[in-house]
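Figure 2 data, in text form.
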Amino acid sequence: MKRWTSVVMAGTFVFVLSLLVRGLYLADGMALLYTPDQDGTRMARRYDDTALSILAGEGILFPKVWDPARTGLASRPPGYGLFLASVYQVFGRSFPIVAAVQDVLTSMAVLLVMAFAFRLFGLSAALFSGLLVAVSPHIAATSNLVLADAVASLPLLLAFLVVLPVIRGSGSPSNQIARLVLMGVLIGAGVWIRPNVVLLGPFTAPFLFFLLGRNRRALLLSGLVALVSLLVVSPITLRNWLVFGEFVPVSINGGITLWQGVADAGGREYGARVWDKQVMAEEAERYGRPDYLLWWAEPDGIVRDRDRYRRATDVIKDRPLWYARAMLRRMGMMLLFTDGPKSLLPAGAIVKAADGERVPLRPMPGLDATVDEAAFAEKAGVASFLRAPLRALHGAWFVVPILAWVGIVLSLRDAPRATLLWLVVPLYYLAFESPFLYEWRVAVPMQYFLLPFAGRTVADLLAKLAPR
């Protein structure tokens, strides 16, 4: 009983700390809302439009009017727009409120990480794992962006946590099947939010095959996970086929990020550009279509996306070693957390957005929540006393990935099966995100899966240093 009391107390402490840290990032970002200084401002507006159309009765998947020319419908999967619509319906339409809800959800995700570490390494490692996730600058900053990255990690964490007992050999056969089916459902739900994990189910299947025994039953069960994940995504694929008459598995934003990845690698000579507006401008000039300046996803979004894929792959095939070096560089950035958000402000600092750039959301009477943003920021930043220690800790954050990889080596020795399961997501991101344009917020799910191993290392070090 005393042990579980300690677990509850540790979880409560880390959850509260996580909320306080995320609140500081929310307070810092409040003045930047609705301005180009905020990450993903244009994308957030698109998600807001999707949420409003859902609430207006346009449907989650299918619009009332099927217009194959409106390819912007396939620009993103509908999951995050549905999430926004749900928040708007319950709390009112407000980006600060959305950020606060996301802060609560990602603080709950900290408890999922602690649950994994507790099962494998014990309470001490679980506590330090939770602390690291709670104070991670990457996770805390992403939690306050009105973008799909903020909540995309939650179904993935649940998917791999729910199947952990199966990998460890516990549960009846029927219970194991149910857990594996649920894993596939949760991975598919993750694709509804963020399309870059569309192949995670099939990618996970070979690992599950080896972890489940490398026999016929293991083959069937691992294949089941892949199949279920794709079935959950299939309504989006079917929608795209029926509306556009084209096979688009999820969305049409892959070509632009691959083409931008070519530009990031140094391929501007081929016409590649890093920023969305630059890509649109180059295409407008190349094809003599001024209307291509309006949006990268519309008009002709499907054709343009496939053309970007074609042009990018032509460059990569022509210079494979050059692009392999760029991919390795991005893998290193993902593993070392070298890129990230702006630092927390010192206590007492005030953020001022540039004059004339703030463009609030268009009014929606009856739906908009009345929020005093200055008072909201003050309440969110109540833990200002944490700013100085957090700034110092974040300044030394480069040590954390080193601790994580030490922990992985130790864990592969002690609990190889569970460790390999938990490394599937980082391995997927290394393999499938490195060809595309790297943005630090996209790789945030990796940190949820890597930081528990850093927590284990810290716990082991302290145990060795503690007096016997």
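Caption note: The first helix runs from residue 2 to 29.
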